[in-house]
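Open question from group meeting: does this chain pack into something compact, or does most of it stay loose? Before anyone orders reagents, we agreed to write out a predicted structure and look at it together. Recording both the input and the output here so the notebook holds the full record.
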Amino acid sequence: FSIMAFGNLKFDTLTTSDAKKSSTEKSVDTSYLFNGVCKVWVNFDGTAGTLAARDSFNIGSLTDVNTGIYQMNFTNNMNNDDYSGVVSGASDSYENSSIRSEAQSTTSTMGFFMFLNASDSASDNTIVSGQIQGDVA
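Structure tokens returned:
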């Protein structure tokens, strides 16, 4: 048994059967798959000494820069640094956290600051999650 490689498989529409739910055929234009999906996402504990993702996609590593300051390092670079990033977090005290401002972002990294809403101070969060929409290079 051998498999020969002939190059890239290209198609404009992906059609599948939905055997689990309705047993009917479904289709979607592949441009929606490429342009509409999240290119990077992560969920991690920001209080750990060495950050490790609980689960992620396209994350090569995480950097703990300082208290409440983190950096996501992508496995596959973005096309440019004009992508859209969304981050959220929560602390053990159930006090909401928010992103104050984005640190310098590049095609291969996105940095961000987490602050406690009540005290307006930088804070490491037990639950940090982020995602990025944009074009992968």
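Observations to bring back to the group:
DSSP finds one helix and ten strands in the chain.
Helices lie at 30-36.
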